[in-house]
Amino acid sequence: MPAEVRVFGDAATLGDALAAEILERYARSDGQFLLGCPGGRSLRTTYRALAARDADLERLVIVTMDEYLGAPAGAHYSVRRFAFEEIARPLRLEPEQVWFPEPAYPDAYDERIAAAGGIDLFLLASGASDGHVAMLPPGSRPDGRTAVLALADSTRRDNLATFPDFDALEEVPTHGVSVGLGTIADAHALRLVLHGADKRAAAARLLALADFDPSWPASIVHAHADAEIWLDAAARG
Q1: Alpha-carbon 217 to chain mean position
Q2: 64-112 pLDDT per residue, tens
């Protein structure tokens, strides 16, 4: 059954509504609340809206999706840098409240998540040209787990827009460690966000599908019982 679609007037309104849902779910939970978080542009309005509410989030755990192999901690494209500067610091989280997959022990990430009761809500974004989620390229298996992998050239080209400090494709890393589609699908709920006119074609491709299609990894949302696609008016077209 296709995922439910919600459309908002603009990215800021979308981010505010998603921040409200996160806090509502957090308030209903007990113990650690695991929130799956991508880096990049798509969830920035959500993270900012969440920080603006100034909530006590001492039970929150940020579960990052991926990281580029060999990325220096302060690099403009580093997921670790993004997670601390744009999520953890504004939310006043301690370093131990932010989790990262480790390239040397990728299997341990899924084990750690499972031991904590699973991811309560996984926020997702989609690549504009190939539908990648995290670093997962077209053709990824729906039951895949955290692993070290080669980035598709289409994903690397998308990174040129995501990280404008890259001057050429040759500067974009070729490998990373990433959660798998199975890691994502095991979350209790999924919310996939697309906003802006540059994501209109990606949104149209996703909405044209009714089930998971391995050629468009973001379509994993169509195979989940509690998944929604959140768009702004510009992405919906």
Answers
A1: 12
A2: 999 999 998 889 999 999 999 999 999 999 999 999 999 999 999 999 9
Question: Of 39, 199, 200, nearest to 124 (Cα)?
Answer: 39
pLDDT at 161: 82
pLDDT at 56: 97
Give pTM, 2 decimals.
0.96
Domains of the chain and CATH, by start: 4-236 (3.40.50.1360)
pLDDT of 159 above 90: no
What's the CA gap between 137 and 130, in Å, rounded? 7
The sign one gets for the Cα dihedral 124, 7, 221, 199 is negative
